[in-house]
Task: inverse folding
């Protein structure tokens, strides 16, 4: 069978994904093996895969594919989140294009449109996951609005309400004027914005002057009910208890004293608007002040504002400033940079708003969830970066506003009678039964709460309910797969989702939901900027896959993604991945070409290359175990890339040329197969393709399920001998290049060493790789030669055209090498003298640095001795 000259990813990827699906390799059912379970962080049903998804999903696929190869019963559950705010916004906008308002068609008709939209667009992201190579168990696909899942959400709401943890009350909440819904504190993103600070003069009631306040929101002046000053501020003590007038509307308001006021900000006077600021709200409660809501839900001015009714809040801000200036109330303005809250869902500026909502008490739920992480029942990776963040959230937790003023989502299971009494139940029938019981079996009319639950209130049950742990707690699958093994997610939802899942798992099941949490960093462009559509720096993942292939894109993402650190994505990483695919393909073609040349004669290189790579491979297998235990996936890929490109392709295969014997070819194939197994989790398509082209296999033998070999014994001496051989060849070629000598030029090799036996092991390779006519061991440097320092040894190169060699020229090169080594030594010594490094670095890392120091000192000694002989 002739192998194509170049790798064609598009046809290969489609072929193998279809085969894996057909064979059912990605589906899991309980058996006697140990489970390895991952639940995908459910992407929004509205969405398409972006680079953040690509990073998260690639990491999950790497972990699940490796788990299969390690013999675990690997189960990766896919699914999607109904995303209340985002989906409703999409459907509302779609209806607008048809001239339809959701209020005009009513709830049921709107939900019908929403479900139609979901069925049409909701599967796009699943197809993109398949295109990326994600080996999910598609038979387990879950949607957070599925009937059974919805039943679980309602069930836990009722349970928490009956436990006294859910309550309904009036509080100041975050309001999204675009989505027209409440938000939790965690859904508000604070950004620094440039604004203006307006200094406004309020006339004193007794006409003795003015009291000046500074505000960034002059539109809210229309809702002012007091002015507060610090009780110890000598500038205003005489005014405490007096009254002022609100500019433009002449409302009489008291001047009060409150220690909350910051005397150093602005003028030291604070306007109090309880309906539109959380701090003012608390001051209003303390001082029994009225509350005037001057904004409609959509951010326009309400009739209570008296002026500019129906106009947008930001338009009114400028109009108020102009009118205040015109009427003589605006003293001055200043530029200011301050933080403003934005809705993470709609990007609208959030308004504080007093509203009646449903809340979940969090403190009692948070403590066990904090303890589970602090006592390492759940391990966070990387712990040093995120443990304190998690602790801070959990120790400062606030009650969670769980109601949203939307129609798409889980409708709150609360019913009201005509007197406003609340009946919380799983079904309407149960609510009526409760009502009759409470009302002496009289018939009552009930209507259900119009609001839905926060999307996170459903997704916090995700690792439990994908296995029906809430609705069918005795089922065998839930008992087998739960707790899950690892959660891979972004650091930005550490409290939104991760902490709440831990709370839910412990509260509803008594068990943690997962054993490990791997936090990914933020995907940024190569300039370090957050990716966004507005900057035009967010690549289209599907287009990248079409151009480079899924394996190359996965490589480009993972090669620079250390755990928890931000990924600076550069398309050049995908190009590097494509080059790597071609390198693998060329290695396949070379090995296959040897088959036609195979003889029974032993390879000219002898046994050394085979022994060396065998132990080099065993050492890497051992390193891989450690890397995956510590979730060092990017680091493992870098090492594997080097192992394949440098050690296998550029070194081992070169040493085996022109062609090994039949036995050598089989051994080479076995090495290549093991490398393909190691690489398969990172680059699944090309590895499966090469595996089947390399040797004939049984129809049921596929790399995706092939058991990964365990690490065997390692002869470190042979590994080090191979590294020495590589260094000698590279150093000699470098020096030949510096002297403008062709690398294929014949030469004599003179070696001054105390480890002659080592050289005898790889003499045939040294001879062939350096085109050496002869190799001589010597105690004295020969005349007219090029000197090359390799570790503790000195290599002398004699060439016919080098009748005379300038000692000054050689001294120049050696002095340059010596200067570099001394600088390198200084850096190592600084590191080894750093107490912080010694305290936090692992023992093997410190040991490696100490060995570097000793090796460098030995090289310096050899060069200095050589320089003395040239003097």
Result:
């Amino acid at each position: 069978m002739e192998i194509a000259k170049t790798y064609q990813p598009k046809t290969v990827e489609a072929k193998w994904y279809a085969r894996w699906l057909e064979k059912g390799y990605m589906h899991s059912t309980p058996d006697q093996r140990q489970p390895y379970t991952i639940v995908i962080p459910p992407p929004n049903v509205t969405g398409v895969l972006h680079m953040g998804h690509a990073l998260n999903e690639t990491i999950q696929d790497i972990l699940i594919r490796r788990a299969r190869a390690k013999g675990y019963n690997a189960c990766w559950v896919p699914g999607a989140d109904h995303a209340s705010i985002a989906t409703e916004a999409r459907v509302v906008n779609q209806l607008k294009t048809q001239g339809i308002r959701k209020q005009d068609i009513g709830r049921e008709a709107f939900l019908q449109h929403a479900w139609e939209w979901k069925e049409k667009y909701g599967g796009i992201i699943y197809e993109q996951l398949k295109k990326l190579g994600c080996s999910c168990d598609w038979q387990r696909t879950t949607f957070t609005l599925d009937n059974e899942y919805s039943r679980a959400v309602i069930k836990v709401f009722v349970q928490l309400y009956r436990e006294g943890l859910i309550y309904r009350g009036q509080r100041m909440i975050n309001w999204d004027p675009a989505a027209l819904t409440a938000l939790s504190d965690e859904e508000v993103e604070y950004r620094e914005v440039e604004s203006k600070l307006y200094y406004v003069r309020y006339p004193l009631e007794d006409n003795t002057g003015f009291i000046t306040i500074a505000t960034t929101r002059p539109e809210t002046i229309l809702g002012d009910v007091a002015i507060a000053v610090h009780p110890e501020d000598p500038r205003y003590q005489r005014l405490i208890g007096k009254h002022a007038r609100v500019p433009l509307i002449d409302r009489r308001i008291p001047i009060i004293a409150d220690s909350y006021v910051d005397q150093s900000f602005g003028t030291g006077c604070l306007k109090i608007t309880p309906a539109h600021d959380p701090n003012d709200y608390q001051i209003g409660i303390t001082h029994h002040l009225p509350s005037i809501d001057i904004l409609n839900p959509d951010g326009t001015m309400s009739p209570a504002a008296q002026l500019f009714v129906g106009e947008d809040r930001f338009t009114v801000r400028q109009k108020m400033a102009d009118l205040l200036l015109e009427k003589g109330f605006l003293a001055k303005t200043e530029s200011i940079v301050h933080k403003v809250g934005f809705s993470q869902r709609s990007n609208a500026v959030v308004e504080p708003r007093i509203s009646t909502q449903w809340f979940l008490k969090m403190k009692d739920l948070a403590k066990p969830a904090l303890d589970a992480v602090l006592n390492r029942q759940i391990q966070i990776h990387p712990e040093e970066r995120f443990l304190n963040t998690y602790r801070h959230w959990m120790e400062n937790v606030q009650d969670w506003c769980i109601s949203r003023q939307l129609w798409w989502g889980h409708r709150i299971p609360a019913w009201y009678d005509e007197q406003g009494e609340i009946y919380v139940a799983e079904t309407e029938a149960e609510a009526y039964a409760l009502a009759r019981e409470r009302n002496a079996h009289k018939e009552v009319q009930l209507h259900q709460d119009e609001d839905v639950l926060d999307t996170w209130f459903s997704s916090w049950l995700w690792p439990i309910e994908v296995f029906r742990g809430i609705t069918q707690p005795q089922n065998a699958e839930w008992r087998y797969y739960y707790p899950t093994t690892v959660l891979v997610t972004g650091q930005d939802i550490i409290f939104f989702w991760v902490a709440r899942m831990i709370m839910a798992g412990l509260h509803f099941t008594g068990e943690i939901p997962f054993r490990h949490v791997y936090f990914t960093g933020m995907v940024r462009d190569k300039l370090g900027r957050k990716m966004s559509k507005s900057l035009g720096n967010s690549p289209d993942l599907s287009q990248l896959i079409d151009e480079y292939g899924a394996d190359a894109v996965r490589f480009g993402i993972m090669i620079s993604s250390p755990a928890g650190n931000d990924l600076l994505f550069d398309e050049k990483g995908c190009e590097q991945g494509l080059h790597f695919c071609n390198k693998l393909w060329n290695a396949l073609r070379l090995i296959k070409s040897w088959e036609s040349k195979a003889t029974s004669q032993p390879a000219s290189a002898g046994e050394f290359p085979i022994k060396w790579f065998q132990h080099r491979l065993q050492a890497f297998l051992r390193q891989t175990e450690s890397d995956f235990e510590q979730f060092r996936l990017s680091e493992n890929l870098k090492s594997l890339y080097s192992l394949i490109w440098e050690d296998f392709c550029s070194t081992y295969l070169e040493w085996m040329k022109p062609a090994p014997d039949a036995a050598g070819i089989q051994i080479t194939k076995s090495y290549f197969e093991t490398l393909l197994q190691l690489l398969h989790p990172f680059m699944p398509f090309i590895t499966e393709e090469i595996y089947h082209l390399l040797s004939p296999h049984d129809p049921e033998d596929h790399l995706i399920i092939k058991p990964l070999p365990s690490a065997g014994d390692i002869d470190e001496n042979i590994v080090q001998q191979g590294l020495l051989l590589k260094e000698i060849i590279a150093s000699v070629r470098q020096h030949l290049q510096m002297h403008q000598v062709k690398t294929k030029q014949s030469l004599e090799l003179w070696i001054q060493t105390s480890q002659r036996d080592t050289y005898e092991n790889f003499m045939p390779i040294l001879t062939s790789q350096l085109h050496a006519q002869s190799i001589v061991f010597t105690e004295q440097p020969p005349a007219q030669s090029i000197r090359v320092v390799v570790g503790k040894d000195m290599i002398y190169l004699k060439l016919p055209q080098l009748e005379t060699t300038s000692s000054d020229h050689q001294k120049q090169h050696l002095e340059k090498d010596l200067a570099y080594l001394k600088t390198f030594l200084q850096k190592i010594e600084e590191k080894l003298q750093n107490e912080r490094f010694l305290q936090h670095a692992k023992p093997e890392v410190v040991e490696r640095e100490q060995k570097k120091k000793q090796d460098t000192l030995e090289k310096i000694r050899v060069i200095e001795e050589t320089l003395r002989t040239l003097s």
Summary: The chain has a mean pLDDT of 91. The longest strand covers residues 188-203. Residues 274 and 283 are 8 Å apart (CA to CA). The longest helix spans residues 843-870.
